[in-house]
Amino acid sequence: MAINLQKGQRISLEKSNGSKLQSVCVGINWGAIEKKGIFGFGSSKEAVDLDASCALFDENKKLIDVVYFGNLKSKDQAVRHSGDDLTGDMGGDDGLDNEVITLDFGSLNPAVKHVAFVLNSFRGQDFGTIPFASIRIYEGTPKRVNEIFATYDIAHDASFRGHVSMVMGIFYVKNDEWKFNAIGEPTKDRKLEETVNTVMRNFL
To answer: Where in this chain does the record put each TerD domain (predicted)?
Structure first.
């Protein structure tokens, strides 16, 4: 049964049968912005280009690798990005993830101790104007969901208004066990590089 994550909540990666997750998909689903017509007549859809990215760090907070729309695989092949979605759901929420990053814990470079997931609005569109945006962690593939492990709603929170970047959450090792911290914090950054630096300074 999925856990609805709250900001700052930390969870162990344990499935409903008590076993540990060996690999996960982190999927992001979002919608296009609806624009009202002149004098309130009619409406149109404005495409939204959100970019999900993943940064890998060692125990000393040194950046090892970054997976994003321009680099779809980590050097160790453990992290893979499904590709860049430039529009979001133009026809309303279809329930499917627009971008998916797959993480295989067993294939990770042993030096990796932190795996951070961040979200940036490529065109600088305010998170507060996007009708829906959510993250979910699940077993399966980008095209098949076996079991949803956790979900986190990032759209219906007033703190995201006025921001175009955020830290979604971080997988981290503690006592040789992978855990997840649902950060859910907006940042003042405008570009991926800036957001990765914010993660290094404030969240590891």
So the answer is: 1-194
Q: Where are the alpha helices (DSSP H) in the chain?
A: 192-202
Query: Mean pLDDT of all residues in the chain?
Result: 89
Residue located via tokens 């090792």: 173
In sequence order, the 6+-apart residues with CB closer than 8 A to the CB of 149 are 2, 3, 13, 15, 21, 24, 137, 138, 139
Q: What DSSP assignment string belongs to 19-69?
A: PBPSEEEEEEEEBPEEEE-GGG--EEEE---EEEEEEEE-TT--EEEEEBT
pLDDT tens-digit readout, 93-136: 888 899 999 999 999 999 999 999 999 999 999 888 898 888 88
Helix (H) or strand (E) run with residue 167 in it: strand 165-174
What is the pTM (predicted TM-score) of this model? 0.89
Specify the pairing of strand 10-12 against strand 79-81: unpaired
Q: CB-based burial of residue 41 (10 Å sphere; 0-12 exposed, 13-18 middle, 19+ buried)?
A: exposed
Cβ-based burial of 197 (10 A; exposed 0-12, middle 13-18, buried ≥19): middle
